[in-house]
Automatic annotation (TrEMBL):
Pfam families with a match to the protein in the record: ABC_transp_aux (PF09822), DUF7088 (PF23357)
Highest taxon, organism lineage: Bacteria
Residue ranges of domain ABC-type uncharacterised transport system in the record: 436-642
Positions of transmembrane segments: 7-31, 43-60, 81-102, 122-141, 148-168, 200-217, 229-250, 685-705
Entry keyword Membrane: yes
Protein keywords: Membrane, Transmembrane, Transmembrane helix
Name of the protein described by the UniProt record: ABC-type uncharacterized transport system
Span of domain DUF7088: 257-352
Origin species: Treponema saccharophilum DSM 2985
Length: 711
């Protein structure tokens, strides 16, 4: 009741709502195209920051009960009640933030399991922060300002002490200790959607420890004697519990796709093992100091090894000489020492040995695609076969420059890419069998014989992914569209059920390009929506969406089925007159209200033919990938689609599902209309920056008004 009439409680609630909303929606660029995400980790990670101030302030208003030993209750019970009161006050604004995932769900898909785990972790964090503050107020009872400031300083320290090794070289033992006592370190897994019993135990046991320490502090203040045996037993019990929690634990993956734990498909693959599989994880000690999430790799490997008694795991310190002999190169990471930035060479390699075969994951830093990497290697180790893909560029470009990402990316996903071209292309394609795959990028410069070789491969059942269209665009120079009337592959695809409509698709859901406007001193860069670059919304074949460039629509028949579609707000720029491709000239372009959805990728899966057609030869172009990527990250969504499609064409749906589930759809794909998006944005901002703060403050205003009327 005391907190209900205290202005500091309401101020803390308003501050929590405003700060967390600001960090998620504004600082996190939620409404910026291409930057917004439905991943809620930014929201949950905001709570420890603001709690450095709010939790000590809440406990500050309860301090008279902390030092009032005249109350007829046992000290431990009194402190527990005070902590519960502080936790209740802390939880009110946190629960109000449930509106964040509710509003975010209007823009994209929200993982309910991640939200539940995150809010549970926030409450546990609040319990521990409240317990720590109560202890500090009990330990420094004389001047109220001292425990308040000390609580804020200590909370700040224990929240972020785990990042100290990133800037100060420390020994592994000290770095390990800092991680173990960091409040925020133990909160990280909750934000990802994982309930780890070690983290839960840390919060609960540490909270109980601070209750015991508060009792000790009070006995010391009052000069009471006796009860030491009970306190020692309590401390010993808590220590034993903490030790047991670290030795025996469980991890519950609460995400909707269970992307942080082995899937049923992985369990099935592991069950095929008839002989022991030995996994050795070589990890540099410095890695855990620079990248704390590296510990999750060891956790996942341990869970993977528990799937079968035939799988054994050994985690060892990296030996540069031994790994070099295995062909593994170290990676250089930056470490800021405060006075300079130095490069540290680290290793994080997984070596898998089965019978006389060996497979290596040369570098792994997170669990993002780790399950897929392990599972597809298990399959190859058991079968002894390689996943060979012949890559043929038929538009006059080459893999070394125009498609430089293709071969390395395929290799990183367990494929064995083989670049075919020149005079040997026809022979290489003709020699492909059903166990191989074929990737064709463009066809405008393809010879008739090469086109027939591709047709023959498709007819023999070779899984084939064809990225082409009747139109070519010189992406390195002017974006002018030309048609190759003698393209030998287009008639082949038509005969298979993939007919190209003589047009280019334009879409309101498009990628913005930065262009220079004006010349000389008046030149400036402007961002323009470019409707010929399609931003495809997440759909079953592209769970995170993707981007296509100057794509032609497909008309399907003969068993071909759609894979990718444009948004419902699309229209066509028909062939006939020269195509308009200038981004400035296309501003304000529309269909006149005649919108439609168009197929831009399709596939045909029969007993004799397994072929996928993407109506865009540039979708994995290096240059175009650079256009749509950010300053610090590369947009590999198109390459993810490429790999999953090749896997599905090859009949490896389980592995394709693994890749899809490791990269959940977090884009804001539900609203493509700009006016509707703006309206929903205004509603969201009004809820979190006007209505929720008012809802948190109005009860206090009502109490004040009631007091005035009584006076």
């Amino acid at each position: 009741m005391l907190l209900l009439v205290d202005p500091l409680f309401y101020a803390a609630a308003v501050a929590t709502v405003l700060f967390c909303s600001f960090r998620f929606f504004l600082a996190g660029k939620f409404f910026v195209e291409g930057a917004g995400t439905t991943d809620l980790r930014q929201l949950f990670q905001s709570v420890p920051f603001i709690s450095i101030a709010t939790v000590p302030l809440i406990v500050f208003r309860l301090r008279r009960f902390i030092c009032d030993d005249s109350l007829p209750v046992a000290p431990a019970k009194r402190f527990a009640v005070i902590i519960a009161a502080a936790l209740s006050a802390f939880s009110v604004p946190v629960l109000m933030l449930v509106s964040v995932p509710a509003c975010v769900s209007s823009f994209g898909d929200v993982d309910v399991g991640q939200a539940a785990a995150g809010f549970s972790g926030v409450i546990l964090y609040g319990l521990l922060a409240s317990s720590l503050s109560v202890f500090l107020f009990a330990a420094f009872p004389s001047v109220p300002a001292i425990p308040l400031l000390v609580s804020m300083a200590v909370l700040a320290a224990v929240d972020f002490i785990h990042i100290v090794p990133l800037y100060v070289p420390l020994g592994s033992a000290l770095s390990f200790a800092m991680r173990k006592i960091s409040f925020a370190w133990h909160f990280d897994s909750f934000g990802k959607g994982i309930a780890d019993s070690r983290d839960i135990s840390f919060y609960l046991i540490s909270s109980a420890l601070f209750v015991v320490m508060s009792v000790v502090a009070e006995r010391r203040r009052t000069g009471r004697r006796g009860g030491r045996a009970a306190l020692l037993v309590a401390l010993a019990s808590l220590s034993l519990l903490a030790f047991s929690a670290e030795r025996s634990y469980f991890r519950a993956d609460m995400t909707a796709s269970r992307r942080h734990s082995p899937s049923k498909a992985t369990r099935s693959l592991v069950s095929l093992l008839g002989s022991p599989l030995r996994i050795t994880y070589y990890r540099s000690r410095e890695l855990s100091e620079l990248y704390p999430q590296a510990s999750e790799v060891a956790d996942f490997l341990l869970e993977f090894s528990s799937l079968s008694p035939l799988v054994t795991l050994e985690v060892v310190d990296a030996d540069a000489g031994r790994l070099s002999g295995l062909g593994v190169q170290g990676q250089q990471l930056e470490r800021n020492t405060g006075t300079k930035i130095e490069l540290v060479t680290v290793y994080s390699a997984v070596v898998m040995q089965h019978l006389d075969r060996q497979s290596i994951i040369p570098y792994v830093l997170s669990t993002g695609t780790l399950e897929y990497d392990l599972a597809q290697r298990v399959k190859q180790l058991v079968s002894g076969s390689a996943r060979r893909v012949a890559v043929f560029v038929g538009n006059g470009r080459d893999c070394g420059e125009s498609y430089s990402y293709v071969a390395p990316f395929l290799a990183s996903r367990g494929f064995m890419p083989e670049i075919v071209g020149g005079v040997e292309a026809e022979r290489a394609i003709s020699s492909l069998g059903s166990g191989d795959s074929l990737l064709v990028l463009g066809s405008s410069e393809m010879t008739f014989a090469q086109g027939q070789a591709v047709a023959g491969a498709i007819g023999r059942g070779v899984p084939s992914l064809i990225a082409t269209s009747p139109y070519s665009v010189p992406v390195e120079t002017e974006w002018t569209v030309s048609r190759a009337d003698d393209d030998p592959l287009i008639p082949v695809l038509n005969s298979l059920g993939f007919a190209f409509v003589p047009a280019l698709v334009e879409d309101l859901s498009c990628f913005p390009v930065s262009m220079q406007s004006g010349e000389g001193n008046s030149a400036e860069f402007v961002t323009l929506n470019y409707p010929l670059w399609l931003s495809l919304m997440p759909q079953p074949a592209a769970v995170r969406g993707m981007t296509l460039f100057w794509a032609s629509p497909l008309a399907l028949y003969g068993g071909a089925v759609p894979l990718l579609r444009s948004s419902p707000y699309s229209w066509l720029q028909r062939d006939g007159a020269p195509f308009v491709t200038d981004p400035f000239a296309l501003q304000g372009a529309s269909s006149g209200g005649d919108y439609e959805q168009y197929v831009v990728a399709a596939e045909k899966m029969t007993e004799t033919e397994r072929v996928c057609v993407v109506a865009d030869q540039h979708f994995v172009s290096s240059l175009m990938t650079g256009f749509i990527s950010g300053e610090n990250s590369v947009d590999f969504r198109n390459f993810d689609f490429l790999c999953t499609r090749l896997l599905r064409l090859n009949g490896e749906d389980a592995l394709a599902d693994m890749l899809d589930r490791t990269r959940p759809a977090t884009s804001l794909h539900k609203i493509s209309d700009a006016e509707e998006f703006g309206s929903e944005r205004r509603r969201t901002l009004a809820i979190h920056f006007v209505f929720l703060p008012l809802a948190a403050a109005l009860p206090f205003a009502a109490i004040c008004a009631k007091r005035r009327r009584k006076q």
